[in-house]
Amino acid sequence: MRTQGSKEVFTDPWEAVDALKQGRVAMVVGALPFERDKPAALTVPEHIIREDGPLEPHAYYRFGPGSVLHASVAGIDPSPIEHLRRVNAAINTINNTVLNKVVLARAVDISFEPPVDPLLVAARLIDNSHNKDGFIADLTPAGPDFAGHMLVGSSPEVLIKRQGSTITAYPLAGSAPRLADPVRDEAQGQNLLASAKNLEEHSYVVNHLRTILEPLCSQFDAPTVPELTKTNEMWHLATPIVGTLKYPHITALELAIRTHPTPAICGTPTDAAEALIIEAESPRNFYAGAVGWCDSTGDGEYMVAIRCAEVSEDGTWARAWAGGGIVAESDAQEEFDETTAKLQTIMRSLGL
Known about the structure:
Distance between the termini: 29 Å
Number of helices: 9
Structural class: alpha+beta
Shape: globular
Largest sheet: 9 strands, antiparallel
Helix content: 25-40%
Oligomer: single chain
CATH class: Alpha Beta
CATH superfamily: Anthranilate synthase
C-alpha cells in the first residue's frame, strides 16, 4: 500500500474511525503513538496505490545516486549500565507488585552526513528483511515537534489485519538472537521454543489479544502452543491468530486502537507497565506504537512499530529503538544482549 499527498489529518484516532464509517474519507494511513493519550499521526491521502506482491524499492535507492548513505552513532540512551540497572529494578518490582511483565527499551541516536533520504532507509530495510517487510509513515500530523519526521521500519509483527470478516494477528513475544553457525542457530531456536520463561512471556500477549478479540468473533482460533519464526537477526515465538468478525462494522483501525498496546511491547497489567515505562524511559514517541492503513470498507493492516527509527525532517539525525520483555525469571545481561541483537535490524541497514 503506497499513498501520496494529504487531504486531511487526524490526531484523535476515534475521529478517524468515525470518518471512515461515515464514508467521508476513502482511507486513513499513518501511526498510533506508544502512549495512548498522545496525538496520533493519521493522514487522509490524496492518492492511493495498491500493489500485489512484495515491496520492491525503486532502483534509484538500490543502485542509483540515491543509494549512498553515511551514518555514524551519535549517542545511546540510556547507558548500558543504566539499562542493566533498570532491568534489575523491574525484576524487583515484578517480584513485589501486581506487575507480571514490562518491556524496557533503549535507543541509539544516529547522525547522517550528508543528510539521508528516509526513503533510502526504508529501501535498505526492505531489501535486508527476511520477508520484504517495511513501512514509512509521515509523523507531521502529530504536531509541531514531529513536522517532517518520518517513522521508518521493518516490523515482523502484525498487530491486526482485517480482510472482509476475517481478522488475523501475528503476535511475537519471547526472543533469542540468531547465531552464525547453522547447527547452533537451529539449537538456539529449539531452546527458545522449550523455554518456560519465554513461553510465559508469550502467553501474556496471546491472552491479551484473546480477551479483546474473541468476544467480537463468531469463530476464533489461537493455538495453545506458539510456533518459531525468524528474521535475519532474531528467533521469535509467534502465534498465528485467526477470527471471523460477528460485527462487520468494526474497522481495522478500531481493532488496532482496542488491542494496542499489547504485552509484547508494553507489559501486563497494561496500565501498570505503561506507567513504569513512562517514568523510567525517555519518550518513545511512535516506537512501539502501530503503523498501517484502513479504508472505508473497514479493511486494513497495522504492524507493531518495532525495528524502526524516527528520521528528522532535515535528514541529519535519527533515533532507533529496541526493547525486551522483562519477567520475574529474566537475566539483565541477557535482556541487554537481546536489545543489541534487535537493534541490528536498523544498524546493519545503515552500515553501522
